[in-house]
Amino acid sequence: MSFVTEITSEAQFKTEILDTPGTLQVIEVFQSWCGPCKAVQSTFKRLYFDLNDRPLKFYSIAAERLPMMREYVGKCIPVFLFYKDGKQLEVVVGVQAPALNRLVMEFSAVKAAAGA
């Protein structure tokens, strides 16, 4: 998926996720032996193109490649992490397309300016 950026180092995680304000980052944590989940690709691709006016980015991380993701090593199902403004907002375990869709819509919504 070309709209998904793979994170391969903790320095990259810091730059792309923790130090990027105002953008919703959805991270799929997967196992190297099985790769990113193909079942969720169409959902994320649709969201990416349908919501192209929103600050939204998709990432993937192989759990065993980053020490900070060790808690997810050995899981047989993908884990999805939602970050915004350097803070983790939500964790979804497994491919739950309705929940993933709802959270992307909710967390990527641009709030109207006060008094507008």
Topology (SSEs and partners):
Blueprint lengths: L3 E3 L3 H9 L5 E7 L10 H10 L5 E7 L16 E6 L2 E7 L3 H12 L8
Keywords: Cell projection, Cilium, Flagellum
Pfam families: Thioredoxin
InterPro entries: Thioredoxin-like_sf, Thioredoxin_CS, Thioredoxin_domain, TXND_domain-containing
Characterization of the model:
- The protein has 116 residues and is α/β, with parallel strands linked by helices.
- The protein has one domain (4-108): Glutaredoxin.
- Helices cover 27% and strands 26% of the residues.
- It has helices spanning 10-18, 41-50, 97-108; strands at residues 4-6, 24-30, 56-62, 79-84, 87-93.
- Strands 1-3-2-4-5 form a 5-stranded mixed beta sheet, covered by helices on one side.
- β2 (24-30), α2 (41-50) and β3 (56-62) form a beta-alpha-beta unit.
- The longest helix is centred in the last third of the chain and has 12 residues, at 97-108.
- The termini are far apart.
Structure keywords:
about 120 residues; Glutaredoxin; 5-stranded mixed sheet; disordered C terminus
Structure summary:
The protein has 3 helices and 5 strands. By secondary structure, the protein is of the alpha/beta class.
Helix content: 25-40%
Span of the ends, CA to CA: 37 Å
Q: Determine the number of helices (DSSP H or I, runs of at least 4 residues).
A: 3
The CATH superfamily title: Glutaredoxin
How would a crystallographer describe the biggest sheet? 5 strands, mixed
Shape: globular
Q: What is the architecture at the second tier of CATH?
A: 3-Layer(aba) Sandwich
So what's the CATH class?
A: Alpha Beta
Arithmetic mean pLDDT:
88
- The CATH topology name reads Glutaredoxin
Structure classification: alpha/beta
- DSSP strand (E) fraction? 25-35%
How do the strands of the widest beta sheet line up side by side? Answer: 1-3-2-4-5
Low-pLDDT ranges: 112-116
* Integer tally of domains: 1
Radius of gyration: 14 Å
Helix-strand topology string: EHEHEEEH
Total strands: 5
